[in-house]
Amino acid sequence: LWTLRDLGRNYAKAQSIGLPVTVRFVTPGGPLWMIFSPLVVRIATYLPFTKSFITKYRRGWECRERYRAHEEHGELFTICTPGGNYVKISNFDVADDILKRKDEFGRDLEAFAVLNIYGKNLATTEGKEWMRHRKVAAVTFTEKNAELVWGEALKEASQMLEYWRDRAKKPIRTLAQDTQIFSLNVLAAALFDRSYPFEGREESEAREQAIGANAKNGAFGYRESIATILHMIVPIMVFGEKKLRESWWLPKGWQKAGYAVANFRDYVTHLINEERVAIAQGATSSANLVTNLVRACEDESSGSLKTDNSTGSKAILTKDEIISDLFVFAFAGNDTTALTLAYILAELAAHPAMQDWISEEIRYYTRTEDVTRWDYAVCTKLKRCWAVMYETLRLSHPISQFVKNTGAEQRAITHKGRTHIVPSHTTVEINTPSLSSMPSHWGPESLEWNPKRFIKPVSGFEDEVLPPDTTPQFFPWAYNRLVCPGKRFSQAELVGALAALFRDHRVEPVPETGESMQDACRRVKRMSEDIEQRLLSEIREPTKIALRWYKATR
Ligand code: HEM
């Protein structure tokens, strides 16, 4: 009854906006629904007449429906739920207007509170506080750092390929978990300058058992800590670090998460102190993110080193804020890139001709198969690899919605000459899967995965033209003030991975019994675009994609 009362109230508010209204009986971001919806939806798949329920209620429906929901309800419409109203936007001008009015359509800080494990940071602040973090982030992600990422991505991807060819269980069904290990290792190098050899999940479990798994030490301490934190972020938020560590009655894995939080803090604190001493001694250092972040803060301070947590008069970030920002870089930078790489590889497996198309270009710019000799300058030359990355993000993006909130006041939105007043505390979501698939903008074949749409062929590789990576009509990394600080980082990582994997090798789906290769490709394409939203949007059943890597013959 309570739910129905809230739904009734919200319906009245939704109608006042003057946009078409559609009702959902559960709140998509409600914690209970987040936990139980996969189970509820799975049960529904076994029942008759549930197709429409599954289409609307399975989390991440926006990624599967793409522009079709807006075709049915209009470019702007309101979803009314018991927990609040959601205005969905699929119009470039309105989206642009909302993104520009950052102070009016701010972040839903409550939804982001989960990232405050180490205190407030770039992703969980607004206004002046956000500007302070943002200013430091802007000088932290340097081209030198992207170069470091490029080198590590090449190395890790070559090792991952070796694993897939020689050591992994065949056929390979671990695409999603392997790309996560890849991305975690690249992140370790970029953040801390620590290089880890690629190893499959089973290999690392065997190694852990051999050395006696302990979250507090071991050569892989940092990497395991961050992986554990990312995996257990919800229990960490609910119970807190101390309770997780001290509650014997909680599952062992949860206790381990408590130690992982402390472990990451100790590790980073140690590195920050080391860096501050290096600065005091005038030593030059590497371009990793810890170094860059600490140096950016020290440059702004009076020069006096602070090993305590005081802000002083000039230092821009305290030590805790530096730790929290580094954590959020790891959080924002790991799964986004890992999931994107999984999408890319699945799409490429389903489109063999595109593998040849990018390989041709990679071979043109790399004269040797020794990846350690591939200069960072090669990265921006591989336009076809960039096009593959763009096209995949266009159709399958790990962050499907730009979620904004009207905050304490009502806000006006103008659409096609009509002004709509959106009440206070209403969520406004820019629906990118719809914007990036509308046939009116992308053409009648908007749902086809075709990277060539991003390349203007002229004559020869050197003259091919690639559009910018962010415009108001295509913004996988957001744009203007909100642009992702890790944009270059992720581009170097993804293009590096593609170059190392596809120069001399190809991947193909392993057909099921009685299935032709063509049908297997179609199935893999379908599965790679069957997306479900967990924390981010990801392939719903990645283990059902079976792959095989082989050396290309020429
Ligand atoms: C394919 C990979 C990636 C994609 C598609 C991506 C996309 C985005 C987008 C769209 C936003 C804006 C979100 C919003 O305003 O609601 C964002 C923000 C952010 N991204 Fe990325 N990102 C990627 C990789 C990375 C990496 C590798 C890092 C860091 C190592 C990173 C760090 C961040 C941070 C810290 C923010 C928040 C910025 C702020 O609040 O000012 N991202 N990203």
Automatic annotation (TrEMBL):
<dbReference type="InterPro" id="IPR036396">
    <property type="entry name" value="Cyt_P450_sf"/>
</dbReference>
<keyword id="KW-0479">Metal-binding</keyword>
<comment type="similarity">
    <text>Belongs to the cytochrome P450 family.</text>
</comment>
<keyword id="KW-0408">Iron</keyword>
<dbReference type="GO" id="GO:0020037">
    <property type="term" value="F:heme binding"/>
</dbReference>
<dbReference type="GO" id="GO:0005506">
    <property type="term" value="F:iron ion binding"/>
</dbReference>
<keyword id="KW-0349">Heme</keyword>
<keyword id="KW-0732">Signal</keyword>
<dbReference type="GO" id="GO:0016705">
    <property type="term" value="F:oxidoreductase activity, acting on paired donors, with incorporation or reduction of molecular oxygen"/>
</dbReference>
<dbReference type="Pfam" id="PF00067">
    <property type="entry name" value="p450"/>
</dbReference>
<protein>
    <submittedName>
        <fullName>Cytochrome P450</fullName>
    </submittedName>
</protein>
<feature type="binding site" description="axial binding residue">
    <location>
        <position position="484"/>
    </location>
    <ligand>
        <name>heme</name>
    </ligand>
</feature>
<dbReference type="InterPro" id="IPR050121">
    <property type="entry name" value="Cytochrome_P450_monoxygenase"/>
</dbReference>
<dbReference type="GO" id="GO:0004497">
    <property type="term" value="F:monooxygenase activity"/>
</dbReference>
<dbReference type="InterPro" id="IPR002401">
    <property type="entry name" value="Cyt_P450_E_grp-I"/>
</dbReference>
<dbReference type="InterPro" id="IPR001128">
    <property type="entry name" value="Cyt_P450"/>
</dbReference>
